[in-house]
Amino acid sequence: MRDPEERLAEIEQRRAEGDLRVGAAVTEVGRWLGRGAALLVNLFNPRVIVLGGYFARLADQIIPVAQAELDRLGMTSAAERCGFAASTLGFGAAARGAVNVVIERVLSDPTTIAFRPS
């Protein structure tokens, strides 16, 4: 399995070289993100949707397309208040967040850790 950073570098290189298929694929990702965002906005009314991982690195191409789709499909007042932002935390952000949740839980109640005497 290839490293995500390597795959993303290849995508960026092929796009920079003018590969039309890559450009079309990135645009399609933006469309689908915008459609999904419209559902979230219509249900939960968030103010911002943060893109991470691949999406964050390609945000300059994805966000305009996703925002246009959100504006088209979202309820007007909710869609107008919501925007997209790119995370700056990198590919490990989700893992770090999950670890933080576990650490906080253990620190707040150390009895959550099962102790097995040896």
Automatic annotation (TrEMBL):
It holds the Pfam family ROK. Belongs to the ROK (NagC/XylR) family. It comes from Sphaerisporangium melleum. This is ROK family protein. It comes from the Bacteria. InterPro entries: ATPase_NBD, ROK. Gene3D superfamilies: 3.30.420.40.
